[in-house]
Each structure stands twice: as structure tokens, then as C-alpha cells.
Amino acid sequence: MATVSEIRDPIRPLQVALPRRSLLQRVYLVGTWLMLGLIIVQFAAAGAGVFSVLSGNSAGASILLYHRGVGPILIFVLTIVMVVTAFAGHFPWRMTGMAASFFPLLVLQSLLIIPY
């Protein structure tokens, strides 16, 4: 039988919640590194596509299809995963806001490309 001090110990509930929070922290950390990698790949794909078009290499310009289609979808899905993870893990608002900041950036990028 548990004693009164064991029941009212404020540290015990935190020890139960730590494995879940630790897993969510790892998921968020991996998501952050994946987002960095995706942004670097997007930047490189845009540059490779533009320079291929300028040099007249139509085969190399196909990388722009990745940059235009697949890249934003992957960033959007990863953003959703990171925001849900931040809410589920009760992360600080700053971390949740930074993860959610990719939504307006994707919308802004889409709006700025409409004239072209």
C-alpha cells in the first residue's frame, strides 16, 4: 500500500510523463533536422533548375518539377507533424510558433509566384 508521502509526491507524475515527452522531443528534433535538409535541397534544386534553363539544358531543368511540386508538399507535411508534436509535448509557444511559421511562408511563396 502506498503511503501519503508517495501519493502526494509532486515528482512522481513527472517521472511517468517523461518517456512520452522525451519521445516527442526526439521527434521534434528529427523534424527540425529534416526541415533544414529539405530547405537546403529546395535551394539547391531551384539553383540547379535555373542554371539548367539558362544554359539550355532541358534535361537538367526537370529538377524544377521537384522544386515546384514535391518540395512544398514535404515541407507542408513535416510542418504539420512538428506543430502537432509541439502541442502534444507541451513545448514552449516559441517552438510551436517557429514550427508553424512555415505555413505563412509557403502561402506567401505561392502568392508571389502567381504572376510567373
What do these coordinates show?
The chain is elongated, with a radius of gyration of 21 Å. By secondary structure, the protein is an all-alpha fold. Helix content is 82%, strand content 0%. The model has no long low-confidence stretch (mean pLDDT 84). The chain contains five helices and no strands.
Largest beta-sheet characterization: none
- Binned, the helix content reads over 70%
Unreliable residue stretches: none
Helical/strand content category? mainly alpha
Tally of separate helices: 5
- Average pLDDT figure: 84
Topology:
Layout: H1 4-7, H2 11-55, H3 63-88, H4 93-100, H5 102-113
Helix pairs in contact: 2-3, 3-4
Key phrases:
single chain, 116 residues, mainly alpha, 82% helix, elongated
